[in-house]
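To: structure desk
From: M.T.
Subject: fold request, one chain
Message: Could you run this one when you get a chance? Sequence is below, nothing fancy, just the single chain.
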Amino acid sequence: MALPSEMQAWVLSGFGDRGNLAWSTCPVPAVRPGEVLVKVRAAAMNFADGLMIAGRYQLRPTPPFVLGAELAGVVVATPPGSAFQVGERVAAQVWTGAYGQYCAVEEGRLIRLPERLGFDEGAALPVSYTTAHIALFRDGGLTPGQTVLVHAAAGGIGVAAVQLARAAGARVIATASSDEKLAIAQANGAEVLINYRKDGWTDEVRRVCPDGVNLVVDPVGGQITLDSLRLLAWRGRILLIGFASGAPAQIPANRLLVGAAAAMGIYWNYEEDGPLVKAVQAELADRAAAGELRPRIGARYPVADLFTALDALEGGRTTGKVVLEL
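Reply: Done. Structure tokens follow.
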């Protein structure tokens, strides 16, 4: 089947605000050596999208470019000697390009999508689950029997962290901003549920874990980070994944020193961590195929409704992953 020469995509023409982002006609990406062309069926959203639009993300591609970092779809073109075949279902994390009808993807980034996962669930696998796995096991050193405090436990990172920590034999304390969100955390394996919008939430953590928590999974930042430092056990670690509150915390070094604690910045990419990422994602795909892991899709939007989806995500009105359907 002949491929089209043009496609529709969300193209960012310049950094600053959403006025520079438009659903536009642009060329279908050319496939370079080592890449395959994927027809995108679903793309998962991340908080980094808003930062990318504003020009405040650590990666700053030269505009114009197609927004979006997480996708699932079908391979439609391959170079000679490729390990992939036309028709295979795949998922991937990419720097840019997920919010378009087609995306050229480096073969090393591709995850073969288990048949039991739909495209929406597949799109939710590469970023959140990889991040949570690397945070808990490489940087957190999680072992069975330890206690993990997961903030925003009904979000994309939170659900992944709860599932992975619980499966590893950890005790999971989940926090969220509503009872509805806490119920989601409980359904995914959390044992203790705490609303961090209520006064005294840190006292509740101390009551159920008087010796402190071994790990804190923190995608929130701000005051939540500072409060969490006081909840760490001896040699505990706080895993800094993001700043959904809008601001990073100014961490007092003395608080780390007196508890022999550590604050770990959680970040990964293929250029620096390729072998690790491939191994982690292969494990995640196998476990998803076996039914041990199941991404939660909190909301699905047609790709044309990107702005509505972004408002919901940034406004804290979503759970699990937000997915755009193409």
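Reply (cont.): The chain has two domains: 6-125+295-325, 128-265. Let me know if you need anything else for the meeting.
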